[in-house]
Every structure is written in C-alpha cells, then in structure tokens.
C-alpha cells in the first residue's frame, strides 16, 4: 500500500520542479490575509470552548486543511530553492 505522503508527493513534486527561485520565494512568503486570520482565530477559540456549530466546524476544518496544504506547498518550495543555483 502506498502511503498518503507518497501519493501527495507524486502530485506536488512536478509542481516544485517547475519553480524558479523567485516563484519559490514568493510561495514561501504566502500568508493568509488578515480577515482570514481573524476568522480562524475566532473559530479556534470557539472550538477550544466547545461552542462551534456544525457549519462553523466545517468552515474551521476547511481552514485547517487549507493551512495544511499551504504548509506543504511552502515546504516543497523551500526544497526546490535549496536545489536551485543562487
């Protein structure tokens, strides 16, 4: 059985191989906008208090998944930068 990380790598390694140093740097610097960060914090606090509605829980899970994907893309971009000439 192929592990989940290996499957994801199969999709994202070709992406990383297309990056120039400048594009990789820009991917590494990506950040959610302030409105998004504020909403994530609101939902995090409600989640910690056990007060999320079902819709809020679904919204929060989407944010978490998005942040996970962003983190993976940033890691791929960093790895690509380390292989590119300075």
Protein model, in words:
This protein is mainly α. Helices cover 78% and strands 0% of the residues. The protein has helices at 4-17, 21-28, 34-48, 54-83. Helix 1 packs across helix 4 (54-83) and helix 3 (34-48) packs across helix 4 (54-83). The model has no long low-confidence stretch (mean pLDDT 93).
Summarize the structure in short.
This protein is mainly alpha-helical and 86 residues long. It is 78% helix and 0% strand.
* Shape, per Cα inertia axes: elongated
What Rg do the Cα atoms give? 16 Å
Considering DSSP H and I runs of 4 or more, what fraction of the residues is helical? over 70%
Low-confidence stretches: none
Strand content: under 5%
Taken in chain order, the helices and strands follow as HHHH
From the helix content, strand content and strand pairing, which structural class follows? mainly alpha
Span between N and C termini?
A: 38 Å
Compute the average pLDDT.
Answer: 93
Helix count equals 4
Beta-strand segment tally: 0
The largest pleated sheet is described as:
none
Task: Furnish the topology, listing elements before pairings.
Blueprint: H1 4-17, H2 21-28, H3 34-48, H4 54-83
Helix pairs in contact: 1-4, 2-4, 3-4
List its traits.
elongated; 4 helices; 86 residues; mainly alpha
């Amino acid at each position: 059985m192929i592990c989940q990380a290996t499957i994801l790598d199969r999709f994202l390694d070709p992406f990383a191989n297309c990056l120039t140093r400048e594009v990789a740097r820009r991917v590494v610097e990506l950040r959610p906008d302030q409105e998004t960060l504020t909403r994530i914090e609101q939902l995090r606090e409600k989640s910690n208090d056990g007060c999320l509605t079902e819709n809020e829980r679904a919204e929060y899970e989407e944010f978490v998944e998005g942040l996970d994907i962003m983190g993976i893309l940033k890691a791929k971009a960093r790895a690509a930068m380390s292989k590119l000439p300075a």
